[in-house]
């Protein structure tokens, strides 16, 4: 089930440019907003909120109050704000337009999934520091990758966002946990051995047409989701979502070439929300649209068929000629 956000209530005068609504994300929710000069009403966060200025404005100021603090910073590109769950007096005033800001909402359940990997306090999502105007290259990279997935849907978008949200929560815990006790614990299993990896690959092969989650694959491997994502990448050289994406692309290409399914059905089998999203992703991967690929394959098949018949046609003509001469 998708997360419900308070973006519309907290930022009523902003323009919603993009949203993760309808993409089926369950571990995080995202909104890209354009803010004008405004002041937000008091809204108690139900999730950890992270804001990142994707396209900032060095000529303005943002003033925040919450958790007994008053903060002021220049919203330059890359500036980050964090707000933990339950900050009752949280308000934001913006003095100059900010063209693009990503708002991410991370639920308590996401931080609980990391409880086996970190020495977490009892309520980790409430222990995040209330900070503003920070710069963090790791967070910036993860947030921009989530924005890219929100903008250009892929065959394994949900799977990728599941992993990215875990990595984002882990980074927040490591760098911005109030208790100071949120340190990475040593994993119970340090590597994805051959037997575990084989089970995971077999599971993916059997369920490639289904919705696969990192949590499911981690259970098959008997690892936490956080460590599984890292161990799989070390073992295979690519993250889990890219491995699954390659298999789905291969299956889609085979279905297109076979010509028995419509392109809309192929898109659905590849786990896309729409044929348009599938077409964009297919073109990025292959350099051509699914329709162009189908036409090319049909053209190749026709040429192969023509070439295979050509010698027989020559023989028939020669035979006919011989017979004609015999009759004459």
Give a verbal description of the structure.
By secondary structure, the protein is of the alpha+beta class. The chain folds into 3 domains: 7-185, Jelly Rolls (Sandwich), CATH 2.60.120.810; 187-237, Homeodomain-like (Arc Repressor Mutant, subunit A, Orthogonal Bundle); 245-328, Orthogonal Bundle (Arc Repressor Mutant, subunit A). It has 11 helices and 10 strands. The strands form 2 sheets. The protein has a 6-stranded antiparallel β-sheet with strand order 1-2-9-4-7-10. It has a 4-stranded antiparallel β-sheet with strand order 3-8-5-6, with no helix packed on it. A hairpin with a 2-residue loop joins β5 (62-66) and β6. α3 (137-151) packs antiparallel against α4 (157-176). The longest helix has 38 residues, at 290-327.
Defining traits:
single chain, 328 residues, Jelly Rolls, Arc Repressor Mutant, subunit A, 6-stranded antiparallel β-sheet, 11 helices, 47% helix
Structural domains: how many: 3
What's the CATH first level of the largest domain? Answer: Mainly Beta
What is the fold-level CATH name, i.e. the topology of the largest domain? Jelly Rolls
Q: What structural class do helix, strand and pairing data support?
A: alpha+beta
State the shape.
globular
Task: Tell me what the CATH architecture of the largest domain is.
Answer: Sandwich
DSSP summary, beta strand count: 10
What is the CA-CA span between the terminal residues?
Answer: 83 Å
Share of residues in helices: 40-55%
Widest beta sheet: strand line-up: 1-2-9-4-7-10
Largest sheet composition? 6 strands, antiparallel
Rounded to the nearest angstrom, the radius of gyration is 27 Å
Question: What do the pLDDT scores average to?
Answer: 83
């Amino acid at each position: 089930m998708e997360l419900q956000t308070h973006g519309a209530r907290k930022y009523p005068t902003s323009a919603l440019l993009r949203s993760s609504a309808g993409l089926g994300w369950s571990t995080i929710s995202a909104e890209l907003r354009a803010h004008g000069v405004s002041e937000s009403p008091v809204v108690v966060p139900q999730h950890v909120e992270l804001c990142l200025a994707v396209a900032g404005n060095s000529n303005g100021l943002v003033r925040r109050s919450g958790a007994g603090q008053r903060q002021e910073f220049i919203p330059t590109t890359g500036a980050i704000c964090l707000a933990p769950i339950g900050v009752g007096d949280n308000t934001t005033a913006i003095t100059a337009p900010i063209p693009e800001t990503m708002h991410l909402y991370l639920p308590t359940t996401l931080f609980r999934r990391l409880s086996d990997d970190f020495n977490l306090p009892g309520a980790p999502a409430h222990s995040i520091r209330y900070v503003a105007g920070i710069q963090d290259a790791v967070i910036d990279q993860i947030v921009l990758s989530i924005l890219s997935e929100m903008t250009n849907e892929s065959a394994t978008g949900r799977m990728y966002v599941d992993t990215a949200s875990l990595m984002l929560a882990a980074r927040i815990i490591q760098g911005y946990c109030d208790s100071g006790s949120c340190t990475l614990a040593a994993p119970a299993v340090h590597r994805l051995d051959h037997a575990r990896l084989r089970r995971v690959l077999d599971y993916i092969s059997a369920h490639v047409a289904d919705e696969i989650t990192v949590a499911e694959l981690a259970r098959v491997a008997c690892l936490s989701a956080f460590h599984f994502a890292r161990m799989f990448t070390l073992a295979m050289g690519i993250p889990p979502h890219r491995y699954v994406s390659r298999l789905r692309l291969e299956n889609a290409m085979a279905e297109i070439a076979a010509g028995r399914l419509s392109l809309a059905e192929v898109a659905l089998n590849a786990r896309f929300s729409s044929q348009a999203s599938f077409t964009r992703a297919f073109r990025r991967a292959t350099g051509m649209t699914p329709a162009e690929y189908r036409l090319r394959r049909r053209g190749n098949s026709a040429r192969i068929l023509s070439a295979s018949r050509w010698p027989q046609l020559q023989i028939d003509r020669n035979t006919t000629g011989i017979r004609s001469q015999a009759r004459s």
